[in-house]
Amino acid sequence: MAKAPRRRGRPRSEKAQQAILDAATALLIEHGLDAVSMDELADLAGVSKATVYRWWPSKHALALDVLAVDWGAIRPPPRDTGTLRGDLRSILRPWVKVLPSRPYGAVIAALLAEAHMNPEFRALWRARFVDERRDPGRLALARAKERGEIPTGTDAELVLDLLYGAIYHRLLHGHGPMNERIVNAAIDIVLTGIAD
Amino acid sequence: MAKAPRRRGRPRSEKAQQAILDAATALLIEHGLDAVSMDELADLAGVSKATVYRWWPSKHALALDVLAVDWGAIRPPPRDTGTLRGDLRSILRPWVKVLPSRPYGAVIAALLAEAHMNPEFRALWRARFVDERRDPGRLALARAKERGEIPTGTDAELVLDLLYGAIYHRLLHGHGPMNERIVNAAIDIVLTGIAD
Amino acid sequence: MAKAPRRRGRPRSEKAQQAILDAATALLIEHGLDAVSMDELADLAGVSKATVYRWWPSKHALALDVLAVDWGAIRPPPRDTGTLRGDLRSILRPWVKVLPSRPYGAVIAALLAEAHMNPEFRALWRARFVDERRDPGRLALARAKERGEIPTGTDAELVLDLLYGAIYHRLLHGHGPMNERIVNAAIDIVLTGIAD
Amino acid sequence: MAKAPRRRGRPRSEKAQQAILDAATALLIEHGLDAVSMDELADLAGVSKATVYRWWPSKHALALDVLAVDWGAIRPPPRDTGTLRGDLRSILRPWVKVLPSRPYGAVIAALLAEAHMNPEFRALWRARFVDERRDPGRLALARAKERGEIPTGTDAELVLDLLYGAIYHRLLHGHGPMNERIVNAAIDIVLTGIAD
DNA sequence: CGGTAATCGAGACGGTACGTCATGTCTTACA
DNA sequence: TGTAAGACATGACGTACCGTCTCGATTACCG
């Protein structure tokens, strides 16, 4: 792999970047996106605001990184279990084990709002968050079709929306808990519903 | 019914209330919640900011009213069609006919974020928005159980989360369209999935 | 004495007027003009704001009345004592006995500021406050000229400005006390200064 | 003299400070203190309101600076002329030459009102305005006593109140003009009055 | 090993919205 | 008609945040 063509001048401080991410994570978890100011964040990170903005173009982009990093860390990468039911469980169960302990509902809602308003951020959001979560599901469904486990004509996107949508719905509206039992029941209903 | 005991003092201006709601509706549709300032809103309504704040404690509460009024207006109240499939269609199809033409995704996302941060607003949100939409679905499922159309043990809340969640998911993430065909397909999958 | 030609409708409440003046006096003494709001004042007087504005066109006009009434009450009307020194003392000494106990400096300063900005109020201020205080002094000086006590060419207005100005100066700037001894000394200096 | 130890961070913009003072001077002269809004002022100065409040705690403090700077600029510093009459003239005549052309009466009245209400501002006012003007007069009187020109027992403060008070009186109440002739006459009366 | 250049901290800056408050007017029901 | 109650338009207030900027100080490389 080619070495990065080392630019001149003082190199960026990896330590600063990490401090910013740590501070952002802590503050976002505790207060949510809107209640966190960039001044406060820079203070907590022991960093100047200019340094934050040198690395991230906006508060939203930073929050998205926090989300992606944190989520990425919790995910035991989905396995090919041989059955669609097993694959879906291996995808969804890690989420519901972690999500309740991290109040990211508020952050996700705020980023969704921003994605609706800001086309540039929307592209980032789709790529870094939506597709990142959806692709394993798409893969599992494709494999199931290949195996003849589900009809070839099944609308994979709809199946994902039913399952992911239910989880996001409870996460965002908070009207009920989300746990393994519920995830399993949801998977059962949907798989039964799409069987021949 | 007893006549309202007419309070003393100048009565509140219904015209002003309506002007505020109208202006808020127009601005929310056009710009989204965060991009609407209260000054701008009051200006457009031909009303003073103090008057807005006299009747709504915050921009969020006002937006919630806008949403409730607008959504309430579009709804041909769900009918008892005799079958669960018919009932669910009569509930969900009006939504998907109207939602795409009103970019409320951004507004709902912003209100969700606020509901996560602000306990008072959360209570309001649950009562005025979440339950208001869910209750017809709960009723339809209860009737279906009485008729023996679905097993008594069916988890009604989960069924609603699967259906509503799918719709909200597409509305909020915007990764795919939501239309009658999709709603019908979703209903079919879920009803098949919960049949004996 | 002819009875006032009783107008139709509910007669004005003299009690209300007095309550307003009393409340205004109390609040002005305690807080000064700018720190008193008309809502607060009406509340304390047990009166509606509309009633206040029916009798006084503005807060400043009301404050001017308070000042005039209060000042008028304290004044034993200046007597013709036979000498200019005696006349001036009988005019000025009542002021310095009462002024220190009533912190009207702030009120007078605020009204002066308003008089500078508002021509209508300026006329009121000149008539009700400035001339009301100056006229007795003018009279005393005119009598002294008639008696040959001071030269006919004496600039009476300047003499008054020296004496009144000194008192107002200490009242407004608060850099030193004002008492009978000082008033007497001031009168002595000025009378010596204008003697032949 | 030690070099100022250059603080870290972006240095304050002297240009902005000057623009604020210039704008404040212009607006105060044109409209008076109460009729000038901080928004308007910041706009005219081409500066944000936050910057104004960063350096001046209130509109009053800013107006005091304007007054001090403007007054300081007009003053040919009082000279030691050898006689008390000459000294007092050299102090007072510059004022009356400039004051009529600058409608600071309203501003001074407003600041007086504030000084009566606000202890912190009162201290500022005394130091920056009252004593600043009085000290040259005190000095002149002290010199005159040393020279034996006036009795040692003369109450210097009262003398200053008679002279300064007369000028402020006309400036504030506006019932008569103030010019060199009047100032000279006032000085003559008082000096005659305090002679042995 | 000294010059060059990008980064860092600190924090001031322009801009913009916030939610509150006070003034003086207006609109009702009641006296 | 006068009054209490209180809603109303207007407009300033002082605060907070965003994202940009300008400093001196720091830290690498490159010549």
Structure description:
The structure is a homotetramer of 196-residue chains. The longest helix of chain A is centred in the last third of the chain and has 28 residues, at 119-146. In chain A, helix 1 (14-31) packs across helix 2, helix 1 (14-31) crosses helix 4 and helix 4 (59-74) packs parallel to helix 7 (119-146). Chain A folds into two domains: 10-58, Arc Repressor Mutant, subunit A; 74-195, Orthogonal Bundle (Tetracycline Repressor, domain 2). Chain A has helices at residues 14-31, 38-45, 49-55, 59-74, 84-98, 105-117, 119-146, 156-173, 180-194. Chain A is 70% helix and 0% strand. In chain A, 36% of the residues are buried. Chain A is elongated. Chains in contact: A-B, C-D. Chains C and D meet through helix 6, helix 7, helix 8 and helix 9 of C and helix 6, helix 7, helix 8 and helix 9 of D. Chain B binds a DNA duplex (31 and 31 nucleotides) through residues 6-13, 16, 37-40, 42, 46-51, 53-54, 58-59.
